[in-house]
Structures are given as C-alpha cells and as structure tokens.
Amino acid sequence: MQKSFKRSAQVFLGRIGLYQRVKSSFLYDLYWSAARPKIGANQGHKTDIFLRLGARVVAVEPDPSNQRILRQNFLDYRLKRKPVTIVDKAVSDKSGKAIFLVDELGSAKNTLNQKWADSLRTDSRRFGKKLAFEESREVETITLEELMRSYGTPYYVKIDVEGHEMSVIKGMRSAAPFLSFEVNLPEFRAEAEECVKMLDRVAPGGHFNQTPDCTRGFVSDEWLTRDAIFDILRSTDETSSIEVFWRAPGLK
Fold first, then answer.
1. Does the global pTM surpass 0.90?
2. Cα 205 from chain centroid (whole Å)
3. CATH of region 2-95+147-247, choose from 1.20.1290.10, 3.40.50.1820, 3.40.630.30, 3.40.50.150
4. Disulfide-capable partner of 117 in 133, 204, 209, 223 (CB 3.0 to 4.6 Å)?
5. What per-residue confidence (pLDDT) applies to 30?
C-alpha cells in the first residue's frame, strides 16, 4: 500500500515537472529533508503525499477542526510522529489578526477573502449549491517571509487559500525555487495577474506554467515568460480553477 502510494505521488510530481528534476540532482537527499510549506493545509491530503515521499512539511492551517485532524493524522496517533510542523495560523500580508469566514468547520471553502465568500453565497453552479458563510472567527496571521525565517527556505510552496492568494504572496520577500497558487476563475483573474507581478518583483525573470488538473501535468511543454502567462490568464475560458506554477530564475 505504502509503495503504491509513493509511486502514485512520484507520478503526480513527475507530471507537474518536479520529480525527475530533483531525482537526478545531487540535492535529492537535501530536497526531501527540506521543509515545504503547505499553505491552506485543510485535512492534510497533499501533506500526506509529501510525507510519504520523505519530505519534511510545514502545514499552515487556521481552521481548528482541521488543526485537530492534522495532529491526529500525523502526530498524536502515531507511534513515531511524522516530520510535520503544524502552524495554527492563516498566512497573509502581515502578522496580526484577520476574520476567517466559515461556511462549515473543516470545509475547504472557508476563506479570509470576502469577495470569494460573497461569490459563493450567490453561485449555486460551482459546488452544486449556494454556501451560507454564516459564521466568522478571528484568527492569527503570519507572513510567508516569517515562515521562511522560522523554518528555512522551502523547495516548494503550495498555496491553496480560496481567493486569499494575493495577500499570501504579498507577504513574500525571499524566493523559493518553486511555488504554486490556485486561481478561481473567472472571479480572480485580475488577482492572479497581480500575483504574477509580485512574484516577478521578488525574483525577476522567473518562469510560469499552469494546469487545470495536476494529475494531467502542465498545459505547456515549456516554461513560460511572465507575458505569456498573462496572455493565458486573460484568454482562458476555464470557469472553475487553474493552478499556476512559478519557477524561480536560474533553474532549469
């Protein structure tokens, strides 16, 4: 079971262009021992993939229900704890407090972004029903830069924060080799363009790719310039979401 899961994870990483790049590198062992933040960890499905591959994971999650599940799955109910650090905060552009909008505890749709919540309150097509977001709670926030100072520069940062991506990247000052963020379309097209601009300010000359489904790999066979990913964001007819990947300059 574990071997087949590991193989599936390797295939997944290969399809998004990461596995063989690192597997063939002398940095392979260092890669899998390095922390990789999973921002918006939810209940830990992607965290589990990376842990089974041997990585050390920093899982950042503001929902107390999901925090409890993460601890049960990876720490509390294990004879040997997994190498995962759970940060009970939300990632944003500054440290402090923020309002977390809750449709229901544990939901992957919960968000710090008012625009996303308002959209889902009136849209029954995306998830088959309108969402209520009747609850809200105050949560602590931390920046991506502070996470890097505390846990080291990661190899890969995965951001899945339901419309709050722009604020997460705004709090980034140092480049990680790889980063990805989700874009909910068409509502967050403009915000996605701003995320691309911010990444280019952090490390000018990086490259981009994208996919509507990570299990199918990248849409483009080649990594793209900033202008090329702008063209895709402006012209794509996707009406659900895509994931945009960024590769820091100097990597091949």
1. no
2. 21
3. 3.40.50.150
4. 133
5. 39
